[in-house]
Amino acid sequence: MAKVYYNGDANQQYFNHKKVAVIGYGSQGHAHAQNLRDSGVEVVVGLREGRSWNNAVNDGFSVYNVKEAAEQADVIMILLPDERQTAVYNEEIAPVLRQGHALMFAHGFNVHFNQIVPPADVDVLLVAPKGPGHLVRRTFEQGAGVPALFAIHQDVTGDARELALAYAYGIGSLRAGGLETTFKEETETDLFGEQAVLCGGLTSLVKAGFETLTEAGYQPELAYFECLHELKLIVDLMYEGGLEGMRYSISDTAQWGDFVSGPRVVNEEVKKEMKRVLTDIQQGQFAKGWILENQANRPVFNAINESEKEHPIEKVGRELRAMMPFVNQNTKQAEKKEVAALAKN
Ligand SMILES: NC(=O)C1=CN([C@@H]2O[C@H](COP(=O)(O)OP(=O)(O)OC[C@H]3O[C@@H](n4cnc5c(N)ncnc54)[C@H](OP(=O)(O)O)[C@@H]3O)[C@@H](O)[C@H]2O)C=CC1
Ligand SMILES: CC[C@](O)(C(C)=O)C(=O)O
Ligand SMILES: [Mg+2]
Ligand SMILES: [Mg+2]
C-alpha cells in the first residue's frame, strides 16, 4: 500500500516567519486562504479588482494585486483558473520571482503541459485537494478534511517536501490523508477522473437515465428523483463504506439489478472509450483543444453551457429543489454571504 501522510508527518512550525500569497479567491482560493489562516499561517491574497477581491476583503484578508502579493510572500500558491494561469504568471508573477521563492499549484496542468516553465532557482510543487474547494472549507470547519495529493517538480532549497506536507496540514488535508505523486500522474488522473467518471461520466449517465424514463412516458419529477436526487444518497453510502457499504443498505433486488444490468450499461465499449479519453489526455490532445478553445474565446464551451441549462432535468430539478430548501442550504448560505459582501462594497 502507498504511504499515506497524516497530521503527525507535518512540521507544524514550518510557516513560522513565512508568508503565503494565495493568488485567486474562488472555489479553491477561499478555502486554502481561510483554512491556512485558521491554522495560524500568515496569508495575503492576490487578485484583480472585482467580485473575488470584495469577498476576500469582507473575509478579513489583506488583498493586493497579484504582483504585490507575490512579491511580499515566501510561498506563492496559484489558484487561478487553469486557462488563465499562463498569462497572469508571465505578466505578474514571473517578473517578481526570486531565488528561494516557492511556487505552488493545486493542479499540474500548466507545468506538466509546459505552459508555465518556472525559473530553475525556485521550488515548484503542488498540493491538490481531491475535492471541490467549497468542501475543502466546509469539511475543515467540521473538523475533518479533504484528502490531497502532493508532488515536487523542483526542489532547490531542499525544503519542498516539508513545505508540501505543512501546506497540506494547514488546509486540513492531512486529517484525511496525503499521498505523494508526480505532476504527470496528478494531472493525467485528475483530468481523467473529472472527464470519465466524476463530472463527464456522471452527468451523461444521469441525463441518459432521465431521458430513457421520460421518453418512455414516465413523469419527469419521478425521473429526477430516481436518477439525480437519490444519487447523492447512494454516493454518500459509497463514500462511507465503499461499494459493499452501499450494497448493504439497498435491497437484494437492487443489488441483483446492479450485478446484472450495471455492466450492460457501462460495458466493454464504454471502457474502450474511457481508454481513448485517457490516451487523448496522456498525448496532450485534450490540453491542446482546451487551450485553443480559450484562445478563440470559448465558442463551443459557451454554446454547450447554455444548452445544458435548458435540459429538461434542469427545469424540473429547479422546481423540485425550490420545495426542498434543506437540500441546498450550504449553497444558499454562501450566496447570501456573497450578496451581502457585494451590497457592502
Ligand atoms: N474547483 C476545484 O474544486 C478544484 C480546482 N483545482 C485547481 O485549483 C485551481 C483554481 O481553480 P478554481 O478554484 O476552480 O478557480 P475559480 O474559477 O473558482 O477561481 C478563480 C479565481 O481566480 C481569480 N482570477 C481569475 N482571473 C484572474 C486574473 N486575471 N487576475 C487575478 N485573479 C483572477 C478569480 O477572481 P474574479 O472573481 O476576479 O474572476 C477567482 O477568484 C485550478 O488550477 C484548478 O484546476 C484543484 C482541485 C479542485
Ligand atoms: C472533479 C473536478 C476537479 O478535478 C475537482 C473538484 O477535483 C476540478 O478540477 O474542479
Ligand atoms: Mg480533481
Ligand atoms: Mg480537476
TrEMBL record:
Pathway per the UniProt entry: Amino-acid biosynthesis; L-isoleucine biosynthesis; L-isoleucine from 2-oxobutanoate: step 2/4; Amino-acid biosynthesis; L-valine biosynthesis; L-valine from pyruvate: step 2/4
Organism: Peribacillus deserti
Entry keywords, A to Z: Amino-acid biosynthesis, Branched-chain amino acid biosynthesis, Magnesium, Metal-binding, NADP, Oxidoreductase
UniProt: Mg(2+) 1 binding residues: 190, 194
Sequence ranges assigned to domain KARI C-terminal knotted in this UniProt record: 182-327
Annotated protein name in UniProt: Ketol-acid reductoisomerase (NADP(+))
Cofactor(s) needed: Mg(2+)
GO molecular function, one term: ketol-acid reductoisomerase activity
Segments forming domain KARI N-terminal Rossmann: 2-181
